[in-house]
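Why does residue order matter? Because the sequence determines the fold. Keep that principle in mind as you read this record.
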Amino acid sequence: MVGELRRREIGFTSLHENLDTTTPSGRLIFHVFAALAEFIRELIVVGTREGLAAAKTRGRVGGRPTVVTPDLLRAARDMLPNPEHSVTSIAKLLGVSPGTFYNHIPNLRELRVARRPAELEGDSR
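Structure:
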């Protein structure tokens, strides 16, 4: 953004840092700050990746714990064909979000249209 301003012969002055890009020293300081910020960001990214890899080797998994169980999926599957139940009402009744059903039942829309039960992945019914 500052480069575009300079091409248009518009100066940038930061009052808080007392930085003026219309002067050679101001541009130097600005670029040093920008390089440091980029360097620090890259260090954070590397550290985060290393931390996630180390946690994974210890058997830790990130993210929220799943609330979906085979029984919950079975109950949802049994209610889905009934046109009186919407996906939202089924989700509310079972204590999960509608998005959870869409994430765990890939063919949910087809099940609703077909109005008949179908086998779900991992369901041994």
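Helices lie at 2-7, 24-57, 70-79, 87-94, 98-104, 108-114.
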